[in-house]
Amino acid sequence: MEMDKASLLASISCLTSEAQAFKKNGSSDKATRYEVRTAALALADALEFPVEQALRIVFESTPPLIALRIAFEGGFLNHFGGGETQTADSLSAITGADRTLIARIFRILTASKTVDEIGVDSYAANDLTRAFLMPGIGDANTHGCDNVNPIFAKLPEYLSQMDWVNPDTYSMGPHVFTFGRPLWKRLESEPHKSALFNKIMSAFKQNRENWVDIFPFEERLQNSVPADQVLVINIAGGVGHRLRDFKLKFPWASGRAVLQDQKHVLPTTESNSKAFADLQECDIETMAHDIFKPQPVQGARYYFFSAIFHGRPNSACLELLRNTAPALKKDYSRILINDFVIPEKGANLFQASFDLWMMADSTGQERTLREWNELFDACGLKLVEVHTLGVDSVLEVELA
Ligand SMILES: C[S@@+](CC[C@H](N)C(=O)[O-])C[C@H]1O[C@@H](n2cnc3c(N)ncnc32)[C@H](O)[C@@H]1O
């Protein structure tokens, strides 16, 4: 029997409550919730005819993100603390922006559920607003709008000019095509962009499984490393937040922990006193190191890379592995790589979208198991095991 609108809405409302309970009871991991959510989206799609769906995607995908970026830039979202509500008039008085403009931007934010609409031109923050206001979360959208969207816009032209080859060089990659310089060079010369990027990297892990939970450290750390030798080096580890997670989870593990990155990124008392204090508290050493030079620390137990290979083309990954492999001690040292292993079939939209972000941002790419193995084989390395939790993996690699 065909359902009428009221009964369909009642069923959806009932399912919505069940989905909320499913999320809250904590027994469902992120990957499972993502899978169920994908099925729920199919329910929404079932209500549209294909042309409606196509045009909705075209017109509705970008404006919510641009409105959010505008709201950040205009400081419109900074005034909802402690359950306060605002109106277009009150925000206009506080920020000096035109109240009509504010109302137009908030129309998108409320329609996209980023902010609650509690009356005519009257708004309240909700959980999503608060999530976007957390350090690094809305900033990811700022980075996307300012640094990635301009590249996305030029990708078709770039790929056409490059005769449709898979991008594999930094120097002629999509970022350079759009901005004239690669991402890392731009960040080096623009400290505020670099600080924003590091903030995003620290916040971003809230959306991913943590490497310290993915790799079976409890079991592996039973064979202890002498206190004066290096247990783990986090290569290109940013401000050290992942190494800190390791030290906080395994404070009893013996051996040194070393954070490597570019000199200007490593925290100091002057550049980033909070991150510097965090490193000191966890007894993490810092060492400036260029990943395109040979690894100077020989015979460490673990050489750890997180979100590094996926942000680089194959040519650079080979260089990185060849710079690291000679430092490994046979049958002892391991390279640990925390990135996706994209399934050959059935990749979800999160992983597939990330692949395009990586292509645009730094000529990078997410890789399948076959593509990972091709890299290792070419460098005298072999994959020992892939450790996976949800959609996140740590690839364990040793000398062949
Ligand atoms: C995407 S971030 C990942 C940071 C960290 N591993 C994490 O998981 O949050 C890439 C890192 O590579 C570093 N990097 C880029 N080029 C580098 C180079 N030539 N030598 C050393 N580090 C580099 C950047 O400074 C940045 O911290």
TrEMBL record:
It comes from the Eukaryota. GO terms for biological process: methylation. PROSITE patterns: SAM_OMT_II. InterPro entries: COMT-like, COMT_C, SAM-dependent_MTases_sf, WH-like_DNA-bd_sf. GO terms for molecular function: O-methyltransferase activity. Keywords: Methyltransferase, S-adenosyl-L-methionine, Transferase. Coiled coil: none annotated. Residues 177-380 form the O-methyltransferase C-terminal domain. This is O-methyltransferase C-terminal domain-containing protein.
